[in-house]
Amino acid sequence: MPESSVEKAKQVCNKLCETIRKRTEDSGISCSMGIAIFLPENDYDANSLVKQADAAMYEAKKEPGLTIKLAKV
After folding, report:
1. Phi-psi bin for 51: left (phi > 0), alpha (psi -120 to 50), beta?
2. Which residues, other chains included, contact 38 with Cβ-Cβ below 8 Å and sequence gap of 6+?
3. How far apart are the first and last CA of the chain?
4. Its pTM surpasses 0.85
5. Dihedral sign from CA coordinates of 22, 24, 28, 29
6. Of 36, 27, 29, whose CA–CA distance to 72 is shortest?
7. Which DSSP helix (H) or strand (E) runs through 53?
8. Measuring CA to CA, how many Å separate 19 from each of 15, 28, 29?
């Protein structure tokens, strides 16, 4: 499941960057995304998941280009 989530996230980032590039003619656009996946056995609430995804996004921003990071849950 996480692999398919990462692939879907890459598709979303690529499409978003493509759209922005077309509208702004800025070729320096990239995308960083953090993903937290809900697993019932972990018993996380929505705020915890958002915080984990946010932390993963900031880890992704440390790397150049299109980067997707999964939260460590």
Report:
1. alpha
2. 44, 49
3. 14
4. no
5. negative
6. 36
7. helix 46-61
8. 6, 13, 10
Among 37, 41, 31, 65, smallest CA distance to 49 is for 37
pLDDT tens figures, 13-66: 888 888 888 888 777 778 888 988 888 887 788 898 899 999 999 999 998 888
Q: What is the CA radius of gyration of the chain?
A: 14
For residue 5 the two structure tokens come to 């989530």
Instruction: Calculate the CA 26 to chain-centre distance.
Output: 21
DSSP string across 7-44:
HHHHHHHHHHHHHHHHHH--TT---EEEE----GGG--
